[in-house]
Design a protein that fits this description.
With about 240 residues, the chain is α+β, with helices and mostly antiparallel strands. It has 6 helices and 9 strands; from the N terminus they run ββαβββαβαβββααα. The termini are far apart.
């Protein structure tokens, strides 16, 4: 019994572009005004529009503020100084893709009120859950792909996708233990694997649906998982 006229759209896998730019204003001892900040914002936005004329801005984040080379936590409106620097983080998607999204939804009599990158929504949920977290990496591993997002001062500044995921871990366990993949998945879904597992604790017979039963230590499976996740995380984060 409700009619929706506009929506907030959350998108993923649209190959967003990330641009981080800084603008500045010489103050010569005067106060930072709202007009100073508006001038910087409009100047940087014009630069991005000119450089990326085939793309549409969907996010603009305030990421850093510096007054006389000192980092400020919040907008320094009203503070005095000689030199103010302001960094913005922009997220863009292809104009044609943006146009197609609007076209499809307009056919359903819906207008797009706002578009969010899914990574930003996920990061915002993490940050809201712990107010002390403002700068962090967020790594997600799904079956066939992984993703890293970088947040600085709660601004999404970068993300990258990788064509590998947790399926590699399942393959490793299957190869080392000679278990079928279906049985490996069944074990992982129904077994708590952590450092507290006793060295002699074995996988239960009930999980050997398509493999011949053999005495396999849960500790071995945990160590395989731990080693592989560490390796994948280092590739994603460092390499």
């Amino acid at each position: 019994n409700l009619t929706f006229k506009e929506i907030v759209l959350i998108i993923e896998n649209f190959n967003p572009t990330f641009i981080n730019l800084s603008g500045y204003k010489k103050l010569n001892g005067s106060q930072v005004s709202r007009e100073n900040i508006t001038y910087i914002l409009n100047t940087l936005k014009s630069c991005v529009d000119e450089i990326e004329h085939k793309k549409t801005i969907i996010h603009i984040f305030n990421s850093k503020f510096f007054l006389d080379n000192k980092k400020i936590d919040n907008l320094p409106i009203g503070l005095f100084g000689d030199f103010y620097s302001h960094e913005l983080s922009f997220v863009l998607i292809n104009k044609n893709e943006h146009k197609n999204l609007n076209h499809v939804l307009n056919k359903c009599n819906l207008n797009i009120k706002k578009i969010f990158i899914k990574s930003f929504v996920e990061g915002a949920c993490l940050s809201n859950g712990d107010k002390n977290i403002e700068t962090f990496f967020h790594i997600i591993m799904n079956n066939n792909y992984s993703k890293i997002s970088y947040f600085e001062n709660n601004a999404l500044k970068f993300e990258q996708f990788f064509k590998f995921g947790t399926e590699i871990i399942i393959n490793d366990i299957s190869k080392i233990t000679s278990l079928k993949k279906d049985d490996v998945k069944l074990i992982l879904e129904n077994t708590k694997l952590n450092q507290e597992i006793a060295d002699n604790e074995l996988v239960e017979k009930e999980f050997f649906k398509s493999s011949i039963y053999k005495k396999i230590k849960k500790k071995l499976i945990y160590e395989i998982i731990h080693a592989r996740i560490k390796e994948l995380s280092e590739i994603i984060l460092l390499k």
